[in-house]
Amino acid sequence: MKIAVTAESNNGLDSMVAQHFGHAPYFMLVDVENGEVIATQAVANPFAEAHQPGQIPGFIHEQKANIILSGGMGGRAIEFFEQFGIKAATGASGTVRQSLENYFGGALKDAAPCDESVAHGHG
């Protein structure tokens, strides 16, 4: 399975998780088999400066990710991920490694729109 995690840098599993999904500078793509990380790849977010609804979920879909982890994201992004069959989970924090451990440990649940998104009418 391939997991995409929003990241502030391209420092592999030691990258800090980006809290604002749409403006994450990078996505860390993590290939996992039998609970073990077998490969990581940082890809720059081509839409970090400006994006339209659905562009980033489409980009993550093109990367063949099955799951996206982020600090927070809006309701529309969550809906787009659902349409692509990508499971979204929010509440990620710390490093990419810690977020993966939290996800597999059950500490990260299904995505819910972040407070900022709801306040701005995005979800």
Brief overview, please?
This protein is α/β, with parallel strands linked by helices and 123 residues long. Helix content is 25%, strand content 27%.
Structural key phrases:
single chain; 123 residues; alpha/beta; Nucleotidyltransferase, domain 5; six-stranded mixed sheet; 4 helices; 27% strand; disordered C terminus
How does the SSE layout of this entry go?
Blueprint: E1 2-7, E2 26-33, E3 36-44, H1 55-62, E4 67-70, H2 75-83, E5 87-90, H3 96-104, E6 109-110, H4 115-119
Parallel strand pairs: 1-4, 4-5
Antiparallel strand pairs: 1-2, 2-3, 5-6
> How does the helix and strand content classify structurally?
alpha/beta
Work out the radius of gyration: 13 Å
* CATH-defined architecture: 2-Layer Sandwich
Domains (count): 1
Strand content: 25-35%
Strands side by side in the biggest sheet: 3-2-1-4-5-6
Shape: globular
Low-confidence stretches: 116-123
Query: So how many helices?
Result: 4
Number of strands: 6
How far do the termini sit from each other?
28 Å
CATH superfamily: Dinitrogenase iron-molybdenum cofactor biosynthesis domain
**Sheet of most strands:** 6 strands, mixed
- What name does the CATH topology carry? Nucleotidyltransferase, domain 5
Mean of residue pLDDT?
A: 89
Order of helices and strands: EEEHEHEHEH
Helix content estimate? 25-40%
